[in-house]
Structures are given as structure tokens and as C-alpha cells.
Amino acid sequence: MPTSYDALIIGSGQAGNPLATALAKAGRKVALVEKYLLGGSCINYGCSPVKAMLASAERMHQVATSQEYGVLSEPPAVDFKAVVARKDTIIQEMRDGVRKNLTKEDSGITVLMGHATFTGPKSVRVTALDGSTQDIKAPLIFINTGTSSAIPPIEGLAETHFLTNKSILELQELPEHLLILGGGYIGLEFAQMFRRFGSRVTIIEHAKNLLEREDDDVCEAMQQQLGADGVEFVLGAEVRRVSHNPEGEYTLTAHTAEGERRLRGSHLLVAVGRQPNTDDLGLEAAGIETNEKGYILVNERLQTNVRGVYALGDVHPGPQFTHLAYDDYRVVRDNILHRKRRSAKDRPLPYVVFTQPQLGRIGLSENQAREQGLDYRVATMPVQYVGRARETGNKEGFMKVLVDERNHIIGATIFSEQGGEIMAMIQLAMAGKLTCDQLQNMVFAHPTWAESLNNLFAKLVKA
Ligand SMILES: Cc1cc2nc3c(=O)[nH]c(=O)nc-3n(C[C@H](O)[C@H](O)[C@H](O)COP(=O)(O)OP(=O)(O)OC[C@H]3O[C@@H](n4cnc5c(N)ncnc54)[C@H](O)[C@@H]3O)c2cc1C
Ligand SMILES: NC(=O)c1ccc[n+]([C@@H]2O[C@H](COP(=O)([O-])OP(=O)(O)OC[C@H]3O[C@@H](n4cnc5c(N)ncnc54)[C@H](O)[C@@H]3O)[C@@H](O)[C@H]2O)c1
Which cofactor does it need (predicted)? Predict the structure, then answer.
């Protein structure tokens, strides 16, 4: 006989964990199934471990450049095992926090470790690691199973021991030469990190630019910055074959505008995007519809085509960020528990690439504003014009904002030290519908990064 719950959550991701807690607090009998690690990808093999290791790489860079600040030191050396151990300690603490919260005596949540598969529209079988199974049914089911690395069908690749975002975090030795397939978010953050630790790094990207979706000036600035760090690029490259010799060397055969190239390295990271964790979820048994890539189709309230079944986070189509997965939780919580009509449509989309400088983005890019035929004005300012940048020696990058005909901000790109935080201030200004005149005249403390907004927005104020 299946065990009955009021609500079943599949996947301990950024949406599922807070939802389980909220439903249980509201008196529902809740089960949460996780097949691997509580806390999901962000905590265990995504955002947090990468940012923890980036902090070590940034520290390394600070020491390496300390002479410019009049501080003499020995050239720094990395103790890579210690970097990884620091990251592991941080992640373990985060994971323990999630476990404690979900499993504390009065949590009201039953946590089941195992792989969930649908056996019908409202029924799921959980298979534990030891092979034992448990059947569950619930009128409300929330799918929060996230994504995994997409592996492109390149000849020879599957036969090699290439790295993904999961396995690269477990390396104990620094790669001598890291080849990175894909110049997106994951590729860029790891590229700068490993380069600063001392590895040689080559990014192989099939588009003509890194971060292809951004405006050309943004792509160029990022390329220039990573190039200055010593990261090498092969752009517009179509990798056709991968091989791995007994000495452990990888060879990528790539077709480029200059002809065929062979790229050799000691390690290979594949970071060409994600694929949804739905192929082994038994969705067909429940009749849940997906798109052609396997992402679960939902409406703006995150309901699937099967009544009572929802999909939250990266497993449905759309941008893939922790803050959006968490907001999916708010949408479902408010609609189900608070009887509000909350929608996942038209919410702001802030994001940050955690290179140094950071790339903070909110709203429309210039390309998007142009494509939408908007009547916009744009201002750009090099970061070196900012007093704080000169004082702290962080002069790289530029800032760019777009306003509409009513002087309201419609988009911003802040490629700067503290770029994510400066972008968040602009996001608040957008939410409060502040105009460029107001931002030009706002009194910010001197000398802060915030103060840069006065000069940036002054460029948009009509005389
Ligand atoms: C390297 C990397 C860095 C990132 N950095 C950032 C960042 O800086 N900022 C940001 O906003 N986003 C970042 N992201 C994206 C972010 O991690 C995701 O958007 C976020 O974690 C999405 O969470 P989720 O709730 O969809 O599910 P996830 O956190 O992916 O969790 C899904 C869970 O479901 C489990 N599961 C899957 N199938 C089953 C099944 N059949 N049965 C039981 N359990 C199952 C999985 O084991 C997993 O624990 C990063 C991603 C990666 C890979
Ligand atoms: N700081 C952050 O917020 C952060 C950090 C890491 C990851 N993430 C999330 O994780 C998602 C996945 O990251 P990602 O970097 O894997 O994907 P991505 O979509 O950001 O970038 C993938 C890149 O790989 C390229 N590519 C695709 N196929 C290729 C091939 N065969 N050969 C060479 N290049 C190829 C694409 O053109 C693209 O530039 C991101 O979209 C983002 O949502 C966010």
C-alpha cells in the first residue's frame, strides 16, 4: 500500500526546501525525496562551492599584485588541497544547515533519500540506494529536480574522463592546462579561477564571442579582462573530435575560421549548458508534458498540464538561477497557502557573472532594446572615472544604462568591481521608478561605488 502525504516534493533544490518547510508549517503532511545531496546543486556543486574557490583565487590575485599597493611579499603559491578543503568545510556547513532544518524533530517533513519516478499522475516510487522501494501518493506534487551538465555529441568525448561542474570541484591537484568547452557562466568563472591559481587555461567556444547573449561591448570587455589574466580563447570553434591518450593528455580537433586546429591539455571541462533531470522521472506515466528538450511545461503559476502537479526551478523552461528557483517557491507558496494570485511572469531578471570584475546585469541589454524597437537612450562610463576605483586600484570595466522616453531605467550592465551590488542598487531604482534626474542628484556617501551613479546618470539628463 502506498503511503499518503498531503504534498510530495521531488528534489531538494532551491525551491523545494523552503516549500517543504512552508507547507509543513501550514499543517500539511509533507514528504521530500532527494536522490543525491540535500541542498541540491547550488549548495553542493553550483553557486556556493564555485564562489568559495573564487574567493581563494581572488586572494591569490591580491597577493600577486600587492607590490602595486606598496606592499612587499613573496610571490604567492597555491596550496590547492587547502583551497579545496576550505570549500568543502563551507559547503558541509551549508549542507548540514539544510539537513538540520528539514529533519529536525518538529519539521513536519519526512525526508526520503532515493530516486523518485512517477508511477501515475499522483503516485511516485522512491528507490533507495540499497534497491529498496517505497510507494507514495499525494494530491499535490512539486517537481524540483533541476538540471545536469549537457554533454554534446562529439566523437570520442563520451570515452574520455572529462570533467563537469561536479567533478572539477573534487580535483585534488591543480590542472596543468585546463581546456574548457563553452564560454558561458560556468566556463568563465572556472577559467579565471584556475588561471589565477596558476593553471594554463584555454576556452573553446563555438559562438564568435564569449557570453554571446550580451552586447558586443560587454563581450569584448570580458574577453579583454580574461585575456589580461592570461586566459586563452579559441572562438568560433566547432570541436569535432576528442581523444585522450594513455599519458592523460586530451586532444580536441576543432574546425575554426583559420582551418582545423588541434588543442591539447591535461584536463577537459565540459560547460556547454544544461539538460533537465527529467529523462528518468517517469513523466510519461503521469502524462506530464515537456518541450522537445525535456523541460517541463508550466503556466505562469508553475502548474503543469496535470492538475495538482507543479514544476519549480531549473526543470521548467527559462533562465536558470537560484534566485528565480527561490522565487518559484514564493509563487507556489502564495498561490496555494495564501490564496493570492502570484505569477512567475514578467519578474525582474538580475544576474551576476562572478568574475573579477563582476558582470552585473538587470533588465534589457542594448541589443534587446533595439530588437524590441524601443525609444531608448544609453549612457556608458569607464570604471576608471570612478574615484573609488582609482583609490582601490580596481579600474577595469565599464558601466552602461538604458532609459526609456520617460527617463525610467530599462536596463543596466555593470562590469565593475562590486558590479553585482551596484546593479542591485539600480534594480531598486527601477522598482521604485526613479528617473535619471533623481539618480544624478541623489546624495550618496563619498567615496563609495554608489556615488558612481551620479556621474553615470548625469550623462542621460537632458540639459
Ligand atoms: C557551477 C554552477 C554555478 C552556478 N552559480 C550560480 C550563481 O552564482 N548564481 C545563481 O543564481 N545560479 C547559479 N547557478 C545555477 C543554480 O545552481 C540553479 O539555478 C539552482 O540551483 C536551481 O535550483 P533548482 O531548485 O532548480 O534545483 P537544484 O538545486 O538543481 O536541485 C535539484 C535536486 O533534485 C534532485 N533530483 C533530481 N532528480 C531526482 C529524482 N528523480 N528523485 C529525487 N531527487 C532528484 C537532484 O539530486 C538535486 O539535488 C549555478 C549552477 C552551476 C552548475
Ligand atoms: N553566476 C551565475 O549566476 C552562474 C554561474 C554559473 C552557472 N549559472 C547558470 O548555469 C547555467 C549553465 O551554465 P553554462 O556555462 O553551462 O551554460 P551557458 O548557456 O551559460 O554557456 C554555454 C556556452 O557553451 C557554448 N557552447 C554550446 N555548445 C558548445 C560546443 N559544442 N562547443 C563549444 N561551445 C559550446 C555556448 O555558445 C555558450 O557560450 C547558466 O545558464 C546559468 O543559468 C549561473
Answer: FAD
